[in-house]
Design brief:
Layout (H helix, E strand, L loop, with lengths): L13 E5 L9 H8 L9 E5 L3 H8 L4 E7 L9 E6 L21 H11 L6 E7 L12 H4 L2 H11 L2
Amino acid sequence: MSPDSMSPGRAPDVVIGIGNPLRRDDGIGPALLAALHDRLPPTVDRIELDGEATRLIEAWSDRRRAVVLDAVCMGAAAGTVHDLRIDPREPEGTPAVGTPSVSSHHPGLAAAIELGRAFDRLPRSLRVIGIEPEDLDHGAGLSASVDGSCAAAIDLVIEALA
């Protein structure tokens, strides 16, 4: 790979699915990533992660665009689709670390956003597309309310990368 191909914003766009499929709706990130498999161009990288902050920063660094898929806990009704557009320069509107919002993996995603911003390691465009979970207990499969919202979330991912 040439040095120019690794300059900021030159790495391929990436879709990152966060979650644990063995904790019901917490597995929404990997489930959406799997559903998108044949719908994303081959030029888009696909990465499945557990939500740990440093792994997220590494996954989206040097990207022009990154889309993160996750169970998003913001107090809305189960199955609500959230589309959070993160400005790499402006912290206003980014949920704070430790608040009961953004990801079911806090402080992972919120911490990664804050650290990425502090160290200039956010992509030019970062979107968090998530679905409000209903059931985060141990077990396999998504709840009906979350499963029913997958198509809308997938459409947002396709739009984000258009």
